[in-house]
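Is DAU placement plausible here? Inputs below.
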Amino acid sequence: MADEVFIPHNIIVTGGCGFIGSNFVHYVVNNHPDVHVTVLDALTYAGNIENIAGLPADRVEFVHGNICDAELLDKIVPGHDAIVHYAAESHNDNSIADPEPFLKTNVEGTFRLLEAVRKYGIRYHHVSTDEVYGDLALDDPAKFTESTPYHPSSPYSSTKAASDMLVRAWTRTYGLKTTISNCSNNYGPYQHVEKFIPRQITNILEGERPKLYGRGENVRDWIHTEDHSSGVWTILTKGRIGETYLIGANGEKNNIDVLRMILKMMGQPEDAFDWVKDRPGHDRRYAIDSTKLRTELGWTPTHTDFESGLKATIDWYTDNRQWWEPAKAATEAKYRQQGQ
Ligand code: NAD
Ligand code: DAU
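Reply from A.M.:
I modeled the complex. C-alpha cells:
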C-alpha cells in the first residue's frame, strides 16, 4: 500500500529542457493545474529551450544553471516542496568516447541535489534507468524486477547505478524522503538525434542510410515517454518513501525489427540500411517487470500500440525539421569518427 498521498505545489524539474524531462513538464502543466514548475537545466548539447517554449509563464519558470552548483541550489531550492531529477548525461556511446562528464553530472550532480534536499527537507524523486541491472540473454524469459542485482555495463549505466546508491545511502543515513524509478527505453517527440529511433528517421529524411550496430539482435523494451511521465508522477505522489519502482510497458523489440518498421513506414526497401561497428560492451537485452508499480500504485500505460506511437514519432520528425536539423551534422560527424 502507498503511504499518504503527497500533494506537490511547487516542484523543481532538473533536466526539464531534455527529451524526457520536458515531456514531464508538459505532462504536469497539462494534467495538474495547481502545480508550479521550476526547470533547472544547464542547456548542454542535449538541452533545448524550445522544448518548453510556449508554456504559460505563471506555471513554468526557467533557471539556466548546473546541478553541480551548490550556491545556485541554495538560491533556488528554498520554497519548493520537491525535486524531480532528470538531468543527466544520457547517451551510452558518448560515455564510451568520453566518460568524464558522466561522472560529473550523474554522480556529483546527484550528490549536490541530495545535499540540498537534506538541507531544506524537501521531497526528492530520482529518475533512473533499467540499464543499472546490466543485460539479459536474448533467450532468457526473465525480466528485471526491483530485486534484480545491480550489474551495469557502460560508463553511463555505472554512473546512473552510482547515483541510485547515493540516493539509497542518503535516505537511510539522513532520513531523506526519496523515491527512485528505473525506466526502460523511451521514444517519442523531442528525443535527440543521437538516439536510435530519431537517428534512423532523420537519416532517411536527409537521404542517408540508417545505421545498425552489430547484428541488430539487441532487444530494447520501448515505452512512450508520456507513459514514463505518468509513471513518475504516480510514484512522486503515491509512492512509498525509500522505495524503488520499475517503469515499463511490455514493449520488447529487437533493433532490426524496429528499423524495418521505420523503413517500411517511410516507404524504403527493408534492406536500405548499413551494418556498422558494434558498440563496445553492447547490452544484449533489457526487459522490465512493472508489476509493483501497477499493483501497488495502480499505474497503467496508455500508449500500448508501438506501431501507432512510432508512426506519430516519424510524423513529428517529418514536421519539425527546424527542431532537429541544427544538431544533425555534428552528431553524424561524431558517429563517423567512431566508425558508427
Ligand atoms: P537528455 O540527454 O535528452 O536530456 C538531459 C537534460 O539534462 C538536458 O536538457 C541537459 O541540458 C540537462 N543537463 C545535463 N547535464 C546537466 C547539468 N550538469 N546540470 C543541469 N542540467 C543538465 O536525456 P533524456 O533521455 O531525456 O533522459 C533524462 C533522464 O531519464 C536521465 O536521467 C536518464 O538517465 C533517464 N532515463 C532515460 C531513458 C531514455 O530512454 N532516454 C530511459 C530511462 C531513464
Ligand atoms: O534503457 C534505458 C536507456 O535507453 C536510457 O537509460 C538511456 O539514457 C537511453 O539512451 C537508452 O539507452 P540505449 O543505449 O538502449 O539507447 P540508444 O538509442 O543509444 O540505442 C538503442 C539500441 O539501438 C541499442 O541496442 C544500440 C542500437 N543502435 C543505436 C544507434 C544510435 C543502433 O543499432 N544504431 C544506432 O545508430
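Short version: The chain has a mean pLDDT of 97.
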